[in-house]
Design goal:
The chain has helices at about 10-15, 15-40, and strands spanning about 40, 45-50, 65-70, 75-85, 100-105, 110-115, 125-130. With about 130 residues, the chain is an alpha+beta fold. Strands 1, 2, 4 and 7 form a four-stranded antiparallel sheet that branches. The two termini are about 20 Å apart.
Length: about 130
């Protein structure tokens, strides 16, 4: 979000108290809007994932993974926020860029069905970003 002309004080605003009040109010409303948009994201705790030795195909272990969410978080989307290869230090994690997920039956979390692009026999540290619905 770019800073617009009413998101900052001008020299002429300071001279007139009513104009100063309006300018400050506009700035505070802009800040509040930006903070509210940050509240649309939920960051679950990072977790370790270890792929098996034969396949990382959809439906293969370690999937599905259960990720707990607070009761007030209803997921509308899940983004792969980070993926760190823990097996080989400094190695690029993978080409994974997507998360296949569903809402956990009965609520209270989500099921990660698959993360395409993971290597076999590899331990990852996974960071997800949940977009609130």
């Amino acid at each position: 979000m770019s800073i617009g002309p009413r998101d900052q004080l001008r020299a002429e605003d300071v001279a007139d108290p009513s104009r100063l009040q309006k300018a400050l109010n506009d700035i505070l409303l802009s800040i509040q809007t930006r903070l509210d948009s940050l509240n649309q994201l939920y960051l679950p705790a990072p977790f370790e994932l270890v792929t098996n030795a034969t396949s990382t195909a959809y439906g293969q272990a370690p999937f599905p993974l259960r990720v707990a969410l607070p009761p007030d978080v209803t997921p509308a989307g899940v983004i792969l926020g980070g993926l760190e290869n823990q097996t080989v230090s400094g190695a690029p994690a993978t080409v994974a860029h997507d998360v296949k997920w569903t809402v956990k039956p009965g609520g209270g979390g989500l099921l990660v069905q698959h993360i395409p692009g993971l290597a076999v026999s590899t331990k990852y540290l996974v960071r997800l970003v949940v977009i609130r619905g």
